[in-house]
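During the no-cost extension, the postdoctoral fellow (Dr. R.K.) reprocessed legacy sequence entries with the updated structure-token encoder. One reprocessed record is reproduced below for audit purposes.
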Amino acid sequence: MLGDNGTGKTTLLQAIALPLALATKQIQRVTDFDWLGFLPGRYQRWGAPRIELSVLFTDEEITATRALFKRWAATRTERSLIEPGDSKRVRLILDGERCYTATDAQYYQFAGRYYARNLYITEGGTQVLLGWYWERKEIENYLIDPKVFKKALGSNAPPASEYRAALLASAEKIGA
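Re-encoded structure tokens follow.
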């Protein structure tokens, strides 16, 4: 994206990142959004903003998220859990402070990383199934080394090439 200073390049990127951060459970509230230059106090200064995104999901993303959900749900005691949907195109809406989709199942399609993170925590750092669909879509899902996943959870995530190397090494170990 090119443009002169003050033309809204960063604002546009923030408008994309904010609803995605809420939907993927990276943040709980708009005020938790940590982006250099984003001032939560100004967010609703001139009324409640409405942001609509059309998000496309690949078959691999949908499959990986649903597989992670099933493993995560098995660790839960609640019985009213909503399984992620299988929509290829989801309209994500942020209306003021409320972030939503047409159905709850569509909203939970964004929770793949949340499920993976919780599985890592509940399984005590053992190897876990990961859908690296959000980093490298062309790579299949394999069991990978927990230290690579732990690095990915931190703010200094390794480059996609490290994920690929770890995935390929793990695939060899399990004979895939």
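Residues 131-144 have pLDDT under 50 and may be disordered. Residues 89 and 138 are 19 Å apart (CA to CA). The remaining legacy entries will be reprocessed before the final report is submitted.
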